[in-house]
């Protein structure tokens, strides 16, 4: 895909890009969010996210950590399924794919930016990601940016909030019922 994008750029054609169309349902948010993925900024992370989405791994995964004025985190395909008996562990898992080396960039963490969640190790991003409710320049150069919301920020804004400090959700969390790769 990257080689095709490079060839298209050389001949003046528009770059090939992909995105995600996320359908969210729950007590807070209900609707579709569209995200433009930034292959040129974080190619390995975008490849991992799109592969997981194409396999249906993100379908029915909850938003497990949501902090008002900051961000909404989701993507734990191991423990974050809405019907999982292990839902209490949401946020501690990943996928069966390997962790990724950081792909830090100069893209600023502004409202609507999508970034990869990780542990203290910068090279530990796997499947979890977050969407910014507000600007967070303190994250710049610390977390890999993978995309930006292009439609449905009002849906993101409606995601059920968690505890003010931890972001932990009480009761039923909002769910990504469907995550589809778009071109």
Which descriptors apply to this entry?
183 residues; nine-stranded antiparallel beta sheet; 9 strands; globular; alpha+beta; disordered N terminus
Written account of the structure:
By secondary structure, the protein is α+β, with helices and mostly antiparallel strands. Helices cover 14% and strands 25% of the residues. The protein is built from 3 helices and 9 strands. The protein has helices spanning 2-10, 43-54, 153-157, and strands at 19-25, 31-37, 61-62, 65-67, 71-74, 113-116, 129-132, 145-151, 175-182. Strands 3-9-1-2-8-6-7-5-4 form a 9-stranded antiparallel β-sheet. The longest helix has 12 residues, at 43-54. The radius of gyration is 16 Å and the shape is globular. 41% of the residues are buried.
Task: Describe this structure in a few short sentences.
With 183 residues, the chain is an alpha+beta fold. It has three helices and nine strands. Helices cover 14% and strands 25% of the residues.
Tell me the radius of gyration: 16 Å
- Count all strands and give the number: 9
Largest sheet: 9 strands, antiparallel
The sequence of SSEs as H and E is HEEHEEEEEEHE
Assembly context of the chains: single chain
Q: Strand content of the residues, in percent?
A: 25-35%
Shape annotation:
globular
